[in-house]
Amino acid sequence: MSIELLRTSLSILLQGLVTTLLLSVASIVGGTLIGLLAAVLRSFGPWGTDRIARLYTELFRGTPVLITLMFIYFGVSYFGYAIDVFAAGVIGLSVYQGAYIAEVFRSGIESVAKGQWEVSQILGLSRMQAFAFVVLPQTGRIVLPPLIGQYLSLIKDTSIVSMIGMSELMHGGQAIVDRIGKPVEIYGLVALIYFVVCFPLSQWVRHHDRRRLS
Amino acid sequence: MSNQSQTRPVISLSGVSKAFGATRVLNEINLDVRAGEVLVLIGASGSGKSTVLRIMAGLEKTDSGEVWVNDVPMHDPKRARDIRGHVGMVFQQFNLFPHKTALGNVTLALIKARKMNPADARKRAMEVLDRVGLADRADHYPSQLSGGQQQRVAIARALAVEPGIMFFDEATSALDPELVGEVTEVMRGLARDGMTMVVVTHEMGFARKTADRVVFMDKGVIAEQGEPEEIFVNPSNERTRQFLHRVLDH
C-alpha cells in the first residue's frame, strides 16, 4: 500500500469517525428526551397517552432498527419531501433507541417507593413537582448504568445508518475496501476504532453496575 | 361529655365503607374528631385502622359514605385534593427524601408548593427542626441519622407546612425499642400544644397517657370507644378485652 493511499484511507476513516460521533451525540440527546417523555407518559400520562407511549415502546422494541431507518429515509421521500441522510439517521436512531431508554427510565421510576409519592402529595406538591424534585433525582443512581449501556448500543447502531448511505465510520471502511480490498485489515481497523470509543463506557458501566448491585 | 363536644368536628366520617377487591376492610364507619383532640386508633392488624387514617389523609378513596376533613369533602374526588398541604402525615417507614438533607427535606414543600423564598423556608425549617430537637442535624442526610432521628425529621417536615391536623400511621412501629421514646416524646409535645391528632399505634402507653379518646377497631368496624381509662381499665367489649390482654401481656 502506498503512503498516499494510506493517508487517504486514514483521512476517510477519521472523517467517518467524526460523523459517527456527531450522529451518536445527537441521537443520544434525542433518544434520551424521547425516552424520558415516553416513560413519564407511560407511568402517569393522562387521556390515553399512557397507551400511546406503551404502543410506541412495544413497536420499536419489536422491529429492527434498519426498518426504522428505511421507513424514515425513504418514507419521507415517498410523500414527496426530501430529508437529509444525517437528519434521517438522527431521527431514526433517536426514535428507535428512545423505546429502550423509556424502559430504562420506567424501571427507575417504578423502583422509587410509593411512600415517596404519598408524602409528596400530602405536603402539597403537584404530581409534576413530586416527579421532578422527589422521584426523578432518586432514579439517577439506579438508571445511569443501564442508560450508559443503552448509549453504547446506540453508538454501535450508528454503523447501520451506512445502509441508507450515510458516510460515517462504517461506510468509510466499506469505501476503502471497495477501492483497495484488504477487508480483514480495514474492517479490523474499523472495529478497533469503535472499540476504543466504546470500551471506556463499558468499563464505567461494569464498575457502576457492580457498585449498584453490591 | 365535656364542653369540647359542642365544637364542630374537624373530621367527620359517616357511613364509610371500603373494600379492597373482595375483602371488605371498613363497614359503615361513623367517627368525628374535634379540634385539638388526640384520637388514638387501636386494633389488630387488618382491623382497618390504617385505612381509616389513609382515607382521612386523602390517600385512599371510599367506596361509600361521606368524609369531611377541614371542611373539604374527601368523598368527592374533584375536591379531595384541596386537603393537600393542609394536613400532615407521619408514616411507619418515615418516607424521608433520601437525596435531601434534613433541612432539604423540610424546605422542599415550602419552596416548591408554598412558593416561600429559600431564606424564609430555611428559617422556618430550622424552627421546626429545633422543635423536634434536631437543629444540629440539619445538614445530615437521612442515611446518616438514626431511625428515631429520621422520624423526628419527618415530623418536622410535616409540621413545617403548619397543618391543621396531624396523622400518625404506626410512626414508631419500625423503630428499635430504645428509639421509640424520643418520637413519642415529640408527639406528646404536639398534643400538649393543642394539635389535632389522629394516631394509629401499637404503643399502648402512648394511647393511655396521651389520648383524649381511644377507638378500638375490629374487623372493619368500631367495636368500642371512650376515654383511655374506660378502654384500658374497664373495657365493655369482649374483643377489646382479648386484644388488650394480648398486647399488654405478650
Topology overview:
The complex is a heterodimer of chains A (214) and B (250).
Chain A: H1 3-44, H2 49-61, H3 65-78, H4 85-111, H5 114-123, H6 127-157, H7 169-180, H8 183-213
Helix pairs in contact in A: 1-2, 1-4, 1-7, 2-4, 3-4, 4-6, 5-6, 6-8, 7-8
Chain B: E1 9-20, E2 23-34, E3 38-42, H1 49-56, E4 64-69, E5 72-73, H2 77-80, E6 87-90, H3 102-112, H4 118-131, H5 147-160, E7 165-169, H6 177-192, E8 196-200, H7 204-210, E9 213-218, E10 221-226, H8 228-233, H9 238-248
Parallel strand pairs in B: 3-8, 3-9, 6-7, 7-8
Antiparallel strand pairs in B: 1-2, 1-4, 4-5, 9-10
Helix pairs in contact in B: 3-4, 3-5, 4-5, 5-6
Could you estimate the helical fraction of the residues of chain B in percent? 25-40%
CATH class of chain A: Mainly Alpha
Q: What is the H-and-E element order of chain A?
A: HHHHHHHH
- Main beta sheet of chain A: none
Query: What global shape of chain A is seen?
Result: elongated
**Strand runs of chain A, count:** 0
The SS-based structural class of chain B is alpha/beta
Query: Can you tell me the number of structural domains of chain A?
Result: 1
Total beta strands of chain B: 10
Order of helices and strands of chain B: EEEHEEHEHHHEHEHEEHH
- Which secondary-structure class do the elements of chain A indicate? mainly alpha
CA-CA gap between termini of chain A: 52 Å
- CATH topology-level fold name of chain A: MetI-like fold
The overall pLDDT of chain A, averaged over residues, is 88
What is the global morphology of chain B?
globular
